[in-house]
Amino acid sequence: QLVESGGGSVQAGGSLTLSCVASEYTRDYCMGWFRQALGKEREGVAALYTAGDSTFYTDSVKGRFTISKDNAKNTLYLQMNSLKPEDTAMYYCTAGRPMIPAYLRPADYHVWGQGTQVTVS
To answer: Is 14 within 8 Å of 87 (Cβ atoms)?
Structure first.
């Protein structure tokens, strides 16, 4: 089970940090953040391997968002800076074993959290 928190409403240019606590062991998984805006398909935002240091980002968030982990706490984070209105979406934490994590494809992940809403005005 994955439980997200940290969403909210901020003004453009502001920051938020999302957290995702995993109730089960997630070592050797790839964990990531996806988002889905109203009326749009779910898209990958960032991902990383819990057992390594590789990170992957979609182009639109590079330089603004940072994904990180605390394996001791089984917690995944997404630090979001310089937020834009187009970042408004429901953000989901996920875990899986994708062949190519850089693709950030929703179909590669099989465990999902309930989501946390981020609204940028």
So the answer is: no
